[in-house]
Design goal:
The complex is a heterodimer of chains A (310) and B (437). Chain A contains 14 helices and no strands. With 310 residues, chain A is mainly alpha-helical. Chain A has one domain: MetI-like (MetI-like fold), CATH 1.10.3720.10. Chain A is globular, with a radius of gyration of 25 Å. Chain B has 437 residues and is α/β, with parallel strands linked by helices. Chain B has 23 helices and 14 strands. The chains are: A mainly alpha (310), B alpha/beta (437).
Amino acid sequence: MTTLASRTATPTETGGATRRRGSLTHPDRTALLLVAPAVIFVVVFVLIPLVFAVVISLTNWPLIGTVEFVGLDNYAAIPSDATFVKSVLYTLLYTAIVTGPILVLGYAMAVLVRAPRRGSTLLRTVLFLPFVVGLSTISFMTVLEAQPDSGAVNLLLEAVGITDGSTAWLVDGALATGLICVLVIWGVSGLTMVLLMSGMHAIPDEVYESAELDGAGWWQRERNVTIPMLRKTIAMAVIISVIGSLLAFTQFYILTKGGPGTDTMTVVNYIYNRAFVQLQLGAAGALSVVLVAVVGLVTATQFWLLRDRD
Amino acid sequence: MRYTRRRFLALAGAVAAGGVLPGCSSVLPAPNVTAPGFGTNARGTVKVWCRSATQTGLTSLVDRFNAAQNQLLVELTPVLDEQYVTKLATAIRGRSVPDLVDFDDINSMLFIYRDAFTDLTDPISELEFAGRLSPGHLRLATRNGRQYGVPYLADNSLLWCNTELFDRAGLDVDESTKAFDGLLDAARRIRALGDDIYAWSFTGNNPGALGFVVQPMVWAAGTDLIKGPIGAQSGNIRGNDVVQSMLEFYRQLWVDDLVSQRCFSDDGASWGSDFLAGTVGMFPSNYFAVVAASDEAFQKRVTSRLLCGPDGGAAFFDGGDNMCIPRGATNASGAWEFVKFALTVQQQSQLPAGGYTPVRSDVVSPEFRRESPLATLPLERIEEGYAPTTLSYNLLYNQPDGPWLQMFRRAVFDGQVTAAMAEAQSSFDRILELGQA
């Protein structure tokens, strides 16, 4: 450490006197050039749209017509917007329902396919396929398969004697939520599986061998070796899953459009409606900015809770 | 020059403002439609947008126009119905508009009210058949006595009757379809024909289709669910006996098992399939759903009537397309030349082949009656077509979370007619107030 410390030059020693603090022109122009594409990408596709969204949120910005500055009116109106509050609560409920099963199912599938056994590659592909197909396609298929009397879901349930086959899944808020949750858990667990499986592959075999020598069984090895060493990967999988759930849109838009009434209205669905159905981009912009802040806060909290305490 | 953070942020702010400010002004210059030679001998390309629901009719029309002359080339861009308003508004804000939009007439006023379309009163008045154009369509494109769009095709709601089932039940179509009592009596007798025969069919979970076929039963009695001119509109539901009668009529169809249980969840994906299968006696719908998907033998077994009110009267939904020239169009003259071609009797007469009805009442001729017998009724009674003029139609009637569908479902399926009407009244008032702000 002493050697390292003595080798570390201070900014002044390396000519820092000529470089002002806060300057964007770092002396190492090669490094700047290397990061420039990423910086430009973030500035053009993230920062400028974000600034633009904030500007829009301070106006009435109708999709058609003249724009007027309204200050913080759009933000002030949010707490009294009952539909927005309801959509936030519904989105949180939906997130709470699907996050656990996605992680558990993804973990179970990763355990199933992690060993290089005969057929495991094929099994990985099969299990990952729903994620590749995508929620849009799965949702469109579900629209047809959830039809009363004719859809596969109802025919199957009728065949096993659970229902009479005439259940209108998408016309009842609770049933639609249940169906969409099952669809999403099936559709996106493959991503969690792949993330966890690559984490599992990074765990050295020696650790498992030591555990076996100590007499650890399968469950003990999972609990005391795999899960602790997958902590960061699990954290990443959960954060990706939660962000995806908080921003859920496609499956709800295709299957229920937030209905019946507003029973399955997610936050993004509501913001979409405000912007492109009610044509109120200013109000939608304010809601979007709030959503960005909430998602950022939730993600930061998750990072903090799932941080590596070592 | 040093790029400090402060300087960088200032630059970023300027770039953002540069993106924002041009979008603030969205009123584009109007083309001069009174210039000599407007709409004749134009050259170049005409960019036309049409909605996907009526794409079939437009595509063949454009093909015929391009084949008929070589001075103008019409380029057609179909736009999904649900994205049309957004895309057009974005195009206007981006100051890059098509030369002509074939537009859902119910949404015309949304853009007219924002000064987005060109005043076409003068060129329309010069059309020798101007007085024969659908008044319902024109009403939806008229503001302060000025016309900002011209009708192109009609998509009307009518009551379609299976005459074979009527005959088997010993019913007369005209007598049965004059008022609600007659409809209910006919419905019960048709239902009695067999377990698999239903009297009526409706899409209980499709707000747009319901609004299309149910509202005329209110208009037929001379009232509406909205009252007042744009700017001072409110709901007209609480205490409206006609609306109550309409809801109770549908409630009766439901509780008496005169309609299939499928109606509860029917989102319109297979609209009309039961009627086309010959298992439904009465089906409020449009020409397209009944005629475009059926064979000649079936068409001989059906007839249509206007939709009636509780105690009589008649009305139909005057839906379809208006053609409007956006302000800022670069080839408005070419666009109007194309419009005039689209409105000729020859072109209008071909609309039924695509599943639509013409908008000129003088299209009806002996030959037209022979070729398209089921398309003549709304043309013969073109004055009885109606659609409400409002800026909020889409929000009120076409959304799954809109008050129209919620009122209908609560009243018809839950039986809470009075409560549903009270709830709808406040929702209509709120949405109309917001839409006019």
